Amino acid sequence: MTEDLTPAEAYAAAKRRAAEQATALAPFRDLYDFDLDPFQVEACRALEAGKGVLVAAPTGSGKTIVGEFAVHLALEQGRKCFYTTPIKALSNQKYADLVKRYGPKRVGLLTGDNSVNAEAPVIVMTTEVLRNMLYAGSQSLRGLGYVVMDEVHYLSDRFRGAVWEEVIIHLPESVTLVSLSATVSNAEEFGDWLDTVRGDTEVIVSESRPVPLWQHVLAGRRMHDLFEEETDHGGRGAGRREVNPDLVRLARMENSRPFNGRDRRRGREADRERERRQRSRIWTPGRPEVIERLDAEGLLPAITFIFSRAGCEAAVQQCLYAGLRLNDEESRRRVREIVEERTESIPPEDLHVLGYYEWLEGLERGIAAHHAGMLPTFKEVVEELFVRGLVKAVFATETLALGINMPARSVVLEKLVKWNGEQHADITPGEYTQLTGRAGRRGIDVEGHAVVLWQRGMDPVHLAGLAGTRTYPLRSSFKPSYNMAVNLVDQFGRHRSRELLETSFAQFQADRSVVGISRQVQRNEEGLQGYREGMTCHLGDFEEYARLRRELKDRENELAKQGAAQRRAAAATSLEKLKPGDVIHVPTGKFAGLALVLDPGLPAGRSNGHRGFEHVDGPRPLVLTAERQVKRLASIDFPVPVEPLERMRIPRSFNPRSPQSRRDLASALRTKAGHIVPDRHRKQRSAAVDDREIARLREALRAHPCHGCDEREDHARWAERYHRLQRDTKQLERRIEGRTNTIARTFDRIVALLTEMDYLRDDEVTPHGKRLARLYGELDLLASECLREGVWEGLDPAELAACVSALVYEARQSDDAVAPKLPTGRAKAALGEMVRIWGRLDALEEDFRIRQAEGVGQREPDLGFAWAAHQWASGRGLDEVLREAEMPAGDFVRWCKQVIDVLGQIAAAAPQEGTVTKNARKAVEGLLRGVVAYSSVS
Fold this sequence. Notes:
- The protein is α/β, with parallel strands linked by helices.
- It contains 33 helices and 24 strands.
- Helix 7 links the parallel strand 6 (about 145-150) and strand 7.
């Protein structure tokens, strides 16, 4: 090709190559044995030019390379780089990757429960650690040049998302921010906000997957493509994906009712036979069957997403019982070597408790589960073996989709419904994209495969909508907290803090949503001006006259409603007085005329001496009409009160289902009362006739100058339009007011409460506030109040651990029916005192309009982990503690580590003269042993 260039072109190309070789990007590219994608190159060049970047790209596309380039730039420039991740597992994984490249001396790790080489120029950390460093003014921030925020779309998380925005807002201006996100539909909006708060930010969006993804549905023995092959319609290059008609036909066949009305017997047999043949082709394959099918078609390794921990464990057992073996002898030997090496620090007595041998058997066969209830060490071993190709089938919950590097050739979704903590809900297009994004290993697979198992009632068109939609908007979950408030006021004062919060992404989005409403208000105001001109009257103020007309109409409507309500109440009262045997006249409706009451049908809980069928929605008498019909009537059939005309005896032998019984009794009814003419209900005098307010308004209307205008009704029509538009405009203005300054108003209420409790005095943070500033967590204010009131003084370390557990623990499913088991003595009393203090805080929050429903405030402490924390900190064995806690090992370890984290904060915040600091440190030592102490970092 170079021979075809002119001398000038060849010189220009050589010059470009020389210029590129002089950049930091050139040696960085040499570190990889593959070419960088255009979006990666574009992002790296923007970084080298001194800009911040937001990279939004699909899972597995390699966006972390941009973060690694920031690390490369920092080291080259002699500056620091902090690489933040949302979860500890990701931090550990990224730490291991960077240590391989740059060595252990240049890379550190900070995750709350791990601190390795904390003064290194490159530190991998969880986002919360960086937030805490910013508020504490840590010396480690000196020389910081770059911050990488991996999985930045986590700021949508309603529990932890606020941390991401706090970091972005509070980072020094000199720091360049690298934001890495999954594909989101509003990346440009997020980029605009970053541009506002961080300065020049380049937004790079890549929609294309590095490995093509094929979508399938596995129904019975057949693997159906979800879409027909893409075709170039008319040669225009506009290929459209159509849902596979075979799948649509299957769904229609399965959902059709097997019934033939013309030949009932033959139709039933034919349809049953058809249904049997159909069922022989359509069923939901079992889990071992799915893995065998994928193995036969060369689609392993695969991750099967099951939205249940128990389901993941059951799937492994089902595969073992089915005799499934995916590994040869050599692979089994390598698996055993790796597992024994990674678990050698676990005491033998704990291995049995942790289900080690069953877990190992699955691994040797190439099958494993992966979920949050597993021991962290076990999960990491599964991840390592899967990446090495020694585990080929993993059954996982959706937590695996959150950034952990475990790409597969195929992803299987058992169902398209999952439990979201409150109800079973369909998965969203964003969740579907995130889960299936793991299919297709870059540099290994030519294509990835997403397989959805057929379920009865499945709609292929709905599935195609999930697979084809890329709408995953980033929504801020930012809310001020008590800890945030005292830290901000301490650093910036109240006024500046309020301004900072106004720069949050939450407020940015709220303000943008207000723009459209504001434009509508402006259009409405222009319309109001036109309507005002249309209703102008030369005789006087027609707006005032229209207001009088409206007041008169509203008063008449109000009195009419009152009259109707009174009539309904009178009718209901008269129905409640009816008894079996009363002859009545039904005034209106389909069954108007003479009727005999068989059952008064009284409302539940009321009685007139007769025990009949009771109704919740008012009396519903069961009657026999003169036309021999037995019907239960409703209050709508009685717009006016009803009075018995006569009484009749109902024979004991009367059967309402017998036509003969109905005919005989109806004949007796006509003979007994057919000649009686019911009294006509006299219409009551209207309340409006005697109402003084109506009389006053009518007098004022007649006296108004506009009353005599010839064009009065034309003006009135314009006035009515004016009134309706003005009402709509006020509603829009209320919506604007509700969305404007929402974050700042919440902050003001929090500051007011903290001032009331002597945590703040204007711009001064009191000693109590200084203590609160060191306590991070959902129940920060409760923890501070417990320290303030000395609730934990005198407790031993195990008792203190039990109390602190109530600040962090939240049961996966609330069970109010069963009281949690609690340690006795001082710990139980202290826990009771904590609940009492929370009750006081809850009442105070209500007074200051701080509502938990809006994501602000203190939830009730959960005592469900207190017993387990107390027992473990007291030195009890793992078997005993897990058995009594009825909790998976992974959950137990995670909660223990969170208790350890808060105990560390309490040790730093508690008064030094008391016993809490010393006992908090001892409690940490008591908890940090055995399975809890196994380091996640190798």
